[in-house]
Structures are given as structure tokens and as C-alpha cells.
Amino acid sequence: MNVYQKLVIVKDVKSERMSQYILTLIPSKAYDARYGSSVCGRFIIRSDKGGFSGVAVYSCVYSAYTARVDTYKDGVKREGVFLLNHTDRSVSDTKADYARSLVSSLQILRGRRPLSRGEYDGDYYVDYTYDDTYDEIYDGGWFDEIVVTPDPIWDGVGADGMTNDEWMSSTTPDSTVDPSPEDGTSNETDDVTTSDNGGNQEQSGEPDVQFSGFNASELQKVKSAITSLQQRFPNLNLNGLRIQKGKWNGNGGISKDGTILLKNGYFNLPLALDRTCVLWHEIYHLQNGHNAGGESHSIPRYDPKVVPEEIELRIKNEVKDDFNITDDNSKELELYYRDRIAVISVISSEYYENELETYEKEKELFPDGSISEDYKNNRDYNVWMYEQKLIAARNNNY
Ligand SMILES: [Zn+2]
After folding, report:
1. Measured in angstroms, how far is the CA atom of residue 4 from the centroid of ligand 1?
2. What is the Å distance from ligand 1's center to 253 Cα?
3. With contact defined as beta carbons under 8 Å apart, do 23 and 5 qualify?
4. String of b and e for 232-267 (b: at least 16 CB within 10 Å)?
5. How far is the CA of 192 from the centre of ligand 1 (A)?
6. 349 Cα–ligand 1 center, Å
7. Do the Cβ atoms of 251 and 374 come closer than 8 Å?
8. Which tops the pLDDT comparison, 376 or 141?
9. Spatial separation of the C-alpha atoms in residues 272 and 225, rounded to whole Å
10. Does 165 or 209 have the greater pLDDT score?
11. Is the pLDDT of residue 66 over 80?
12. Can you give the pLDDT at residue 191?
């Protein structure tokens, strides 16, 4: 019996809570024989779970607690239980028993020999009462291979201006988000439930662009941005672009293999032209060889000398919201605000030069008045922030 594992990060869209889990997939023999090492990828990328049959177990990364157990048949979830509660980490006996029954094949690990149906293995009686269709899964056997398939490493900076490190430090995984909530619960995930690309038929005159990971309405938005680019910039070469739904917050980014990532923020931009503009931005990076991402370096704290009034106001408002501060003159507010604008890590001068160049061109082609107020403010902030980072990077010879 083969077991496949992957680290997954899930997010509750409403509460913005993040959690990370180790996802262990135990496919049925037939499914494993067919898809083997692509089991994890199929399960995560496809909305139909790649037709997965077997057991999915989510475990907390640090505590190794089992957080959720689900059983699947042909991509459809049959049963499942979430063992962690938002308020109370202790697990009820009933839930624990239920989970144990779902994951009964895992218990075979403790056995000394392969089991046949309904046999005692000393400590555990393996019971198959809940669904006969699962016989093929719980046929006993050994865990003879663990295949770990981590996500490809991506260390660029998104259009939100954050590197992976910065993004991680701005979010707090807390292991309470249900990675696979039942219908009707509040908890939506944007990682393990990505959708397929909802019918991307070719039309004549459409450039040759590959799309992946978008649902139907997202795909429509991306395609109309492509059309808009085609109309605005007939000389822009769009052929061969690969565009994929990116994870997490932010608008856009580019993966190491040159795929454009459009993230959740992209689809929340108020205007269609904002989306055209962000897509143009990423294409500009790509076509001008701006792939110089690279690691971020810690530096001695650099405090920006000049902060435009709008940016100061914007950041102070964020701080007030985040820390429930009401007094505009509080020392706390000033302190948190100073911390927030301080630069404590940089990538490289070249990196920020590329960003500033791209934004400068972007502003010529998509001037302030043409894009939404939201996106304009975001752009102003990013430009200012990259200017500060460039100063700090140069100061430190990066
Ligand atoms: Zn950029």
C-alpha cells in the first residue's frame, strides 16, 4: 500500500485564518495503480479531487494531531470528520471513534502481518461495516513507500509587494481552519479546493495562452483581460503565456518557471482595467527578464526618511484597525506605525529597480485616472515602498 504526503496551507476566506497541515493520502489499490505518484497533485489541483478513491488524513504539522479524516470514492467525499474545534482543542470521544473508524487502515501499521478482512491483529479489530464499496481500500497491507511532493519553491515578490517571508510573517497559522469543511459551514478554503479551468475553448484570433486552476468566472475575467491587452497593445506578444491561479493574497506574481500567477486579490480588483493593468505588469516582468527574485536578506533596520501624507494615513489606519487603537495621538500608534514602515529585509537593488521601472511604464500606459482608486492607492504605496527598499538595499550593498 502506498501513502502520499504533501504540506498544505489552507485559509478561511472569511476570517483570514491560516492553517497548515500534512495531508496524507492513502489511495485505493486501483487508484494508486492508475495514478501513482501524481495522487497528491491530482487531489489538490483538481476540483473533483482527480477522481480520488481512498482516505485523506490532515495532521497538524507541529503537534501531529489528526485534524480531519475524510473518505473519498471516485472524487466524491463520502464521510468526514473535523477533530479540531475553534474554541476547544480537546476532541470528543464520539468524534475520535468516528475518525478512527474512517482511518482504520492506518491501524494496520501496528500489525505484524498483512490482514485479511475482519481479522484481529492483536490490538485492533479492523471493522469494515460502514461501506462495502470501500473494501478495496481497507484490504490491509504495508506502508512501504512514503512519497513527499512539496510545492515548487517560489521566492519572487507578488504584486502585493510581499516576499514569501514577508507574507508568512504577516499571517499567523493557527491550525484551526478546517481544510475540507462540510457544505453549509462558514469555512471556505482556497487551497485544497481549487477549481478546474471551466471549459477554455479556443476562438479564432485568440492568442495561444494556457490557463490553469481558474474557475469559470475567474477564467472569464482573465480572458477578458487578455482581449483587452490585445486591443490596447496589438504589438504585445501574448502567445505562449502560461497563466495559473496563484495561492494566497495579493494580485499577481511569476513563478520560477515563468508562469504568471493571478491570485485571489486579482479577482477582487474593482475594475476590469485594474485586472488588465496587473496582467500587463506581470507580462512586462516576464518579457523583460525580471526574474531576479532571490532570497531576502536581513538588514539593520532602515527607517524611511520621508513618508507621503496619504501613505502615513493609510498605514496608521491599518494599524488602528489591527490593534484596536482609537486615539490618533497614542504613543502605541506611532510605535506600531514606525515598525510597519521600517525596512528590515531586502532582496536586491536590481529587484527593486525592476519593480520601479515596471511601475513607471505601467503608469504611462494605465494612468491614475483610468484605474480604480483602490488600485491607484495600492500602486502608490508599492512604488513608495519599493523606493525605500531600494535605498535600504543599496545602503547594504545588496
Ligand atoms: Zn511587479
Report:
1. 35
2. 7
3. yes
4. eeeeeebeebebbbbbbbbbbbbbeeebbbbbbbbb
5. 27
6. 14
7. no
8. 376
9. 7
10. 209
11. no
12. 43
The SS3 call for residue 70 is strand
Average pLDDT (222-241) is 93
Q: Decide the pairing of beta strands 260-262 and 242-245.
A: parallel
Helix axes 373-395, 309-323, angle to 10 degrees: 100
Residues 108-118: pLDDT tens digits?
A: 333 333 333 33
Distance CA 60, CA 68 (A): 9
Q: DSSP H helical segments within the chain, as ranges?
A: 29-35, 39-45, 93-102, 104-107, 164-169, 216-232, 264-267, 272-287, 309-323, 331-341, 349-365, 373-395
Q: How far is the CA of 340 from the centre of ligand 1 (A)?
A: 21
**Helix, strand, coil tally for the chain in percent (to 5):** 40, 20, 45
Q: Which residues pair with 211 in a beta bridge?
A: 243
Domains of the chain plus CATH, in order, are 2-151 (no CATH), 210-287 (3.30.160), 297-395 (no CATH)
35 alpha carbon – ligand 1 mean position (Å)? 37
HSE-up (13 A, CA, CB side) for residue 228: 18
Distance of CA 358 from the midpoint of ligand 1 (Å): 7
Report the distance separating Cα 253 and Cα 260, nearest Å: 6
Distance 102 CA to ligand 1 centre (A): 46
Q: Model-level pTM? A: 0.50
Tell me the CA–centroid distance for residue 16 and ligand 1, in Å. 24
Q: Is 395 helix (H, G, I), strand (E, B) or coil?
A: helix
The average confidence (pLDDT) of the chain is: 77
Query: Which amino acid type is present at position 336?
Result: Y
The backbone torsions φ and ψ at residue 242, rounded to the nearest 5 degrees and listed phi first, read: -115, 125
Q: What does the alpha-carbon distance between residue 272 and residue 262 come to, in Å, rounded to a whole number? A: 14
Stated as kind and residue range, the H or E segment containing 76 is strand 76-82
Distance 281 CA to ligand 1 centre (A): 6
Determine which of 27-31, 151-155, 250-254, 257-261 has the lowest per-residue pLDDT on average: 151-155
Q: Alpha-carbon distance 262 to 250, whole Å? A: 8
**Residues forming beta bridges with residue 242, ordered by sequence position:** 210
